[in-house]
Design goal:
Length: about 190
């Protein structure tokens, strides 16, 4: 795991020849998280890429981090195409990965950032996910389960999709991780990881 916390002291050099910390400082922030006021019981799986700004290099981690900083969003972890896990936000803090969000029917809590851990997989809508990412996600999830009593794994699309739009929590539904994410493969790997 690589620790790359999204705070102004981070010296990770971006492709723009500026550090993560310098860019966060330039945007007037100390860090891209806040204190949490409730217990973690959910993991939210996302995907993100730099396809809109670097179509020829959509999986560029440096560019993805720059996008997070510029938009003031964050997630606890980012898993690149090779399965490298980047820790971006301390798990005891609230990351800004869900936006307007509501748990699926039967739970229906809103503001999912408050009680969740966010994990981003580097991917595009059409790229799918690598075996290395699935293995890293399974291993990371088991590690998270040693720290928190996780009751549910959900996709961003399940909590910030049509239900969240219909509830007036957001204007546009999220699509990630989408139909290319193989939930069965993830859960099978998670059961098999020792």
């Amino acid at each position: 795991m690589k620790f790359c916390f999204l705070d102004k002291s981070n010296g990770f050099m971006l492709d723009s020849k500026q550090t993560v910390g310098e860019l966060i400082h330039d945007f007037g922030k100390e860090h891209l998280w806040e204190n949490r006021n409730s217990t973690v019981d959910t993991v939210v799986i996302h995907y993100s890429s730099a396809v809109n700004v670097k179509p020829n290099d959509p999986f560029n981690v440096s560019e993805i981090l720059k996008i997070y900083i510029e938009y003031g969003v964050s997630s606890h972890f980012l898993i690149d195409r090779e399965g490298t896990i980047y820790a971006l936000v301390p798990v005891d803090k609230k990351a800004w990965h869900c936006g307007g969000s509501k748990m699926p029917l039967g739970d229906e809590r809103v503001g999912v950032n408050e009680f969740s851990i966010g994990i981003e997989l580097v991917a595009t809508e059409k790229s799918g996910f690598t075996n290395e990412q699935y293995r890293a996600l399974a291993s990371l999830s088991l590690d998270i389960e040693t720290k928190f009593d996780i009751a549910e794994y959900v996709g961003h699309d399940q909590i910030a999709g049509e239900l969240a739009v219909a509830s007036g929590l957001r204007a546009i539904p999220k699509k990630d991780p989408g139909p290319n994410f193989d939930w069965n493969k993830f859960f099978t790997l998670k059961r098999g990881v020792v």
